């Protein structure tokens, strides 16, 4: 899911920073565990995998706190940078009947006084609350003094099977200025085998979905097909890579200088309107609905592929043609005038077709053929 500012870009970042009533950012000091050189050299570092559930997004369990550990379903989102969980003081209707975090029973919790938490996502949901720190555990790996938002107010759009979102951008660009759990693990404690995390994004109820932190799971992909693409230099802390090409029904779109945000928190592929019109002009029976979508024939099979670093990856027909109602289908490519010029948001409609390695240490994204 894109934090809204992504779509309106730099201007919005400045507006948010100006508009946010919280205190000036403080220097974050995170205690490093003292370790002897010998122990450090020989200590086994961590890699952990966890299974994910899928329902309009890929989510899995994160444990918050110590004393009485509290487990929550959290969406894993490479398109945003903040972590939050629903707080026990949340009285928005969307919080009813959902598990909520209780800081009072968490022995590791410390509030960050006066630091307001706010984020609004491209899907319209808005989250407000306070900030705090605690120990969290993801895929068996523990992150101490992790900053997060305690969501006291969520908008009516927050109708999801999960109770929070973990942003996995390189840095938190959403204005909350948190250090992400992944960045904490890589930069501050060097706890991971590799400065990477990887996703297998399955199709609903058909195939497994999995997140691996600290490397990748070699059982899930063909290593000889793994191809990395460096992030663009001006990535602003986002997983943004150059797109070589897009092939529709055997025809190349002759677009130059396009880049894509690799976003596990978005279901579809978003393009600026001109690019999407170009894209669908190659599909003879595509019909512009005027609302960002194009209608397609549910019974037809369309060949669509994206090319990165000289390698072409097909999008399977079941990912490209989306049945939104009985016998009514649209293409997974959506146009939106809020998408910045020459930038595409590449969500799970594409990512289900590859194994994806987010290499944060080396600032690159790898795609490989699924095993
Ligand atoms: C983490 O380390 C990278 C590489 O040294 C650096 O560019 C980045 O700014 C660091 N992030 C934080 C939040 O300290």
UniProtKB/TrEMBL annotation:
The keyword Signal applies. It comes from the Eukaryota. GO terms for molecular function: aspartic-type endopeptidase activity. PROSITE patterns: PEPTIDASE_A1. Residues 58-368 form the Peptidase A1 domain. Disulfide bonds join 90-95. Pfam families: Asp. Residues 1-19 form the signal peptide. Keywords: Disulfide bond, Signal. One of its GO terms (biological process) is proteolysis. The active site is at 77, 263. Gene3D superfamilies: Acid Proteases (2.40.70.10). PANTHER family: BETA-SITE APP-CLEAVING ENZYME, ISOFORM A-RELATED. Belongs to the peptidase A1 family. This is Aspartic peptidase domain-containing protein. The lineage of its organism: Eukaryota, Fungi, Fungi incertae sedis, Mucoromycota, Glomeromycotina.
């Amino acid at each position: 899911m894109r934090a809204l500012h992504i779509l309106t870009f730099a201007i919005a970042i400045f507006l948010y920073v100006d508009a946010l009533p919280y205190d000036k950012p403080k220097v974050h000091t995170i205690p490093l565990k003292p370790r002897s050189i010998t122990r450090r050299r020989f200590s086994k570092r961590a890699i952990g995998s966890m299974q994910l559930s899928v329902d309009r997004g890929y989510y899995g369990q994160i444990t918050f706190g110590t004393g009485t550990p509290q487990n929550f379903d959290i969406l894993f989102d490479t398109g945003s940078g903040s972590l939050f969980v629903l707080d026990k003081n949340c009285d928005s209707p969307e919080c009813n009947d959902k598990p909520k975090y209780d800081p009072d029973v968490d022995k590791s919790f410390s509030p960050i006084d006066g630091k307001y938490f706010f984020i609004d996502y491209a899907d319209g949901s808005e989250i407000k609350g306070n900030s705090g720190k605690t120990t969290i555990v993801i895929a068996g790996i523990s992150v101490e003094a992790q900053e997060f938002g305690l969501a006291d107010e969520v908008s009516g759009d927050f109708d999801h099977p999960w109770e929070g979102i973990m942003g996995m951008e390189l840095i938190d660009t959403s204005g909350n200025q948190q250090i992400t759990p992944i960045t904490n693990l890589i930069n501050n404690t060097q706890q991971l085998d590799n400065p990477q995390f990887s996703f297998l994004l399955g199709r609903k109820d058909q195939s497994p979905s999995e997140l691996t932190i600290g490397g990748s799971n070699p059982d899930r992909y063909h290593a000889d097909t793994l191809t990395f693409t460096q992030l663009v230099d001006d990535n602003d802390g986002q997983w943004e890579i150059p797109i070589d090409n897009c092939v529709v029904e055997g025809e190349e779109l002759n677009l130059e200088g396009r880049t894509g945000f690799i976003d596990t928190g978005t279901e579809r592929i978003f393009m600026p309107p001109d690019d999407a019109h170009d894209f669908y002009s190659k599909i003879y029976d595509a019909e512009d609905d005027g609302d960002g979508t194009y209608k397609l024939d549910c019974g037809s099979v369309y060949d669509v592929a994206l090319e990165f670093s000289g390698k072409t990856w097909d999008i399977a027909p079941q990912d490209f043609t989306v049945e939104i109602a009985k016998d009514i289908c649209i293409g997974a490519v959506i146009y939106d005038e809020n998408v910045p010029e020459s930038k595409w948001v590449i969500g799970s409609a594409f990512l289900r077709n590859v194994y994806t390695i987010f290499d944060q240490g080396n600032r690159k994204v790898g795609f490989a053929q699924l095993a």
